[in-house]
Amino acid sequence: MKSEQIKKSIQWGQAGTSPLHINGRDHVMGRSQFIDDIPKPGNLLYVTVMVSPVACGRIKKLDTQKALEMPGVAAVLTAEDIPGENQIGGIIKDEVCLAHGHVQFVGEPVAVIAADSRQEAEAAMKQILLEIEEETPVLTVREAIRKEQYVGPVRKIERGDVEVVFSDCPCYLEGVIRNEGQEHFYLETQSALAVPEDNGGITLYSSSQNPNEIQKMVSGVLGMPQNMVTVDIKRLGGAFGGKESQATSWACLAALAAYQTGRPALIRLTRDEDMLSTGKRHAFESDYRVGFDKEGKILAYCVELNSNCGAVADVSTSVLERAMLHAENSYNIENIRIIGRPCKTNLHPATAFRGFGGPQGIFAIESVIERIAYTLGLDPYDVRMKNMYRKGDIAPYGQEIQHGEDIGRIFKKLRSDSRWDERRKEIAVFNQNNRYKKKGIGITPVKFGISFTAAHLNQGSALIHIYTDGSVSVTHGAIEMGQEVNTKIAQIAATTLGVPISSIRIESNNTKRVANTSATAASSGCDLNGHAVENASLKILGRLKELVLKLYPGDDAVFENGFVYPVREGETEYENPLITFKELVQKAYFERIDLCDHGYYATPGIHFDRDKGEGHPFLYYVFGAAVAEVTVDLLTGRTTLDSAHILHDCASSINPMVDIGQIQGAFIQGVGWVTTEELVYQEKGRLLSGSPATYKIPTIGDIPEEFHIELMEGCMNELGIKRSKAIGEPPFIYGEAVFFAITHALSSLGTYPEELSIPATPEKIWRVIRQNKEH
Ligand code: LUZ
Ligand code: MOS
């Protein structure tokens, strides 16, 4: 395209260009509102939550009388004060809103205090008398398995016969692979504002990825129909899965306080409260057995994925399902058995977190590949390539890997782009010449399935109004949480309607305008709701086009950047507009043509049979790969990430700048998970690393000096919105390349560091170094 044209299409906001973030200016000016920025309604109550100080026990006494008498206190509420059902479990109904009879984890809400100020609420909280008879908590996956204590069924996906192969294969390994959890560390902590309405209903402003679930649960807890509960969400200050199901309790507790007092009620957790009470990424402890040949070809793989789900089910069964569906990652494994055990323990309920079990399932097979490569003395790249999916291959659960050839193409290109072979040689020389510093390089391919694994969640909706001045109001089912889904959706509306992006306003998500929406999750917010926006736009466009052709008879008309052009056969460049979009809309109004419409989309062709472990759960797959190089300081155990190369498949990106931003952020978040972010619990199940002072997330200083991200060219996706691919979660998994760079560096000491687990903190690395010295 000529530069004039490029400029025009950016102004227009066409899909495939990178216009400015639609709220960028307001964000930078500090004008964008998050929950705590909404102007405070009069008579507001501040709500604090008293939580369980112990992991397991029976409530012997809960006396709120003294607290109620404290100054400024409007209400002190317990399970007894819930007018509806004390139940907020989204998939399995095993979760209470307020503890009743017993407590199951440290941080579990027991009572809410509503007062004129936060200080008064906190002072009153100290006056609540809570006596708990402590019981011994179950904290580990192994204890839970011993007691057969699960939050859902143990599941299996199987193909071929692993036992037959194990009994007669050239090489065999077995072992355990562990990863710890991860705190979401969204900047905006869990927050909710509940406002009673004059008709007996209630409106909630909640920091949630899942307005529909907030509406359902508040309706259940308050015992009122769903049409009495309105949920309005403008944007979140980050979420990463932490607000997919876990914004619910806080919204319900604010709603309960508002309902019982008739006054607006605001909850905003402090960072420490949030870290203590809310669930995190699932820790996994996975047992594997693998049979392979001398070239590194995997002949049979058996993996038992045991996840630590915490005290209640939350979304853990779905997380485990996604882990199982990613247990083979990018490899074609003929004989495979995947077992999933969702272990119930007395920790905060683990929940959705970017990747949703995918990273854990992939970490297991990638670790196995590394061990195979080390055992055979092969380059881990070659072992991976030997097993890689090819065109037409079928996943263990029966779905064909569409465009499966792309993963190999990406992997090969990344090998040369990152200078894999040369770097490995340079590293070997470096490690020979350096006693106290060792370098390592790691590579990880990623295949990630797009769609919610629960098929019914794969739907999106939208509502579009065009006003008589040509400006457009778009409501859609996704939640903006910093991923810029609003920018992308505005581009989709602008492209489809042929108006400049500046004419599009994206509204808050509101259950009165879009109903029964799915959580903005599974990387699918833009796909599902973008399709719905396109659907609504096309309906209105159809009516407008009919009018144009009535006013200006011709073959066809095209809508571009605020103008309507005539199209005649054979012409590709449009000039001399017939009419502006604005004038056309005014004419349509006087002709009494509907300028509004609702849009809907349901992902076609997906299904999955859980009992058989078979089906076609994903619409398509996202592919990519990462290479990372590190230096490990043997005196301190500290790792420095020197470089990262990422090659990622977006197909036709709707907004390349946004996608690259998502890859940067996801990768660095993954690096945090595998290196420094450590959740430490004391022996009774209380989180010790429960504040930013003790929990280390990556900072600007952890970004590698050499950081290359490239979008792979020539990848197709006929099924995504505007032929794009989802972006949110897959690149998180690239962080695992850093872990394998560390194990590579440590292997240079003589043995493969089998016991090293995620996160590879300096302490753990140092232990590996010391063990090697002792040998
Ligand atoms: N949430 C969910 C998700 O309910 N089902 C999923 O498959 C999923 N995948 C990723 C993230 N959130
Ligand atoms: Mo998520 S892990 O809320 O897509």
Automatic annotation (TrEMBL):
SUPFAM superfamilies: CO dehydrogenase molybdoprotein N-domain-like (SSF54665), Molybdenum cofactor-binding domain (SSF56003). InterPro entries: Ald_Oxase/Xan_DH_a/b, Ald_Oxase/Xan_DH_a/b_sf, Ald_Oxase/xanthine_DH-like, AldOxase/xan_DH_MoCoBD1, AldOxase/xan_DH_MoCoBD2, AldOxase/xan_DH_Mopterin-bd_sf, Xanthine_DH_Mopterin-bd_su. The keyword Oxidoreductase applies. Its EC number is 1.17.1.4. This is Xanthine dehydrogenase molybdopterin binding subunit. Keywords: Molybdenum, Oxidoreductase. The keyword Oxidoreductase applies. It comes from the Bacteria. GO terms for molecular function: xanthine dehydrogenase activity. The lineage of its organism: Bacteria, Bacillati, Bacillota, Clostridia, Eubacteriales. Residues 29-136 form the Aldehyde oxidase/xanthine dehydrogenase a/b hammerhead domain. It comes from Clostridium boliviensis.
